[in-house]
């Protein structure tokens, strides 16, 4: 395989640029040509495809977001859209593509694979909800962004003796809430993967107040409900403390990627190129127990799903007494 392309799709994640950089420079090192595709699958179908060289990715490793941009393109779910994209790739002589993104992006790569076009998926999403890997690009940065906010909110919560409900991202996965909550010493963590009892939470808040505790921090994954809705439920359950809601939102997607995300992205990008050079497509790269892995992308998406580490949930319950 001599000519490949790379695209980013779905929600942006810190470290995507580092992954693109790794793909480009590893491919050039291996004597391959690399093309970038702007705006994900929409750009693929539109033919927004252009050559990348060493200079194209200079100074990109530290930048958040994605310089290849991203766009939603539901039309790629159709056979017509998929074949139109493949036609554009073939017009440019492209023999394989690296797709960096989350679940929806992976499904696009899976469709390319089903049509016989070699595609390799790199997991890039702050939610850490892609099966087949312990960690995704952007997750570590998002956790640290949320943690910084929690640490700052604790200061003002203590000053005013308040309860803070901190809503973090994670529609179907509570990983950001779990990791940021444990690291931030949260009193409670509310995630989609585990039920909660509002009365038990109220009991812990009251017990903390009686022993002189000056603040309460509750970290809530957005997939459970909104922060204000949760605060209203606390009030209905008898909470009479001053309660404020902080919704971190898209700030978790931005900013410079952490060292871990940059290294992870570099490993993933280089590994994806190695696989394509060997003529291997239809794979999803990942990391398990700190070892790089490559799994069948169709099997990964069809037969597996991400599981939250509920031992962290129990750990926080044990420590937040």
Automatic annotation (TrEMBL):
This enzyme's EC code(s): 2.7.1.11
Binding residues for ADP: 21-25, 154, 185-187, 211, 213-215
UniProt organism field: Pilibacter termitis
Cofactor needs: Mg(2+)
Annotated function: Catalyzes the phosphorylation of D-fructose 6-phosphate to fructose 1,6-bisphosphate by ATP, the first committing step of glycolysis.
Positions of the Phosphofructokinase domain: 3-276
Active site: 127
GO MF term list: 6-phosphofructokinase activity; AMP binding; ATP binding; fructose-6-phosphate binding; identical protein binding; metal ion binding; monosaccharide binding
A cellular-component GO term for this protein: 6-phosphofructokinase complex
SUPFAM superfamilies, per database record: Phosphofructokinase
Regulation: Allosterically activated by ADP and other diphosphonucleosides, and allosterically inhibited by phosphoenolpyruvate.
Binding-site positions, ATP: 11, 72-73, 102-105
Subunit structure: Homotetramer.
Subcellular location: Cytoplasm
CDD domains named among the record's database cross-references: Bacterial_PFK
Biological process according to GO: canonical glycolysis; fructose 1,6-bisphosphate metabolic process; fructose 6-phosphate metabolic process
Protein name, as recorded: ATP-dependent 6-phosphofructokinase
Family assignment from sequence similarity: Belongs to the phosphofructokinase type A (PFKA) family. ATP-dependent PFK group I subfamily. Prokaryotic clade 'B1' sub-subfamily.
Record pathway: Carbohydrate degradation; glycolysis; D-glyceraldehyde 3-phosphate and glycerone phosphate from D-glucose: step 3/4
InterPro entries in the record: ATP_PFK (IPR022953), ATP_PFK_prok-type (IPR012003), PFKA_ATP_prok (IPR012828), Phosphofructokinase_CS (IPR015912), Phosphofructokinase_dom (IPR000023), PKF_sf (IPR035966)
PANTHER family in the cross-refs: ATP-DEPENDENT 6-PHOSPHOFRUCTOKINASE, PHOSPHOFRUCTOKINASE
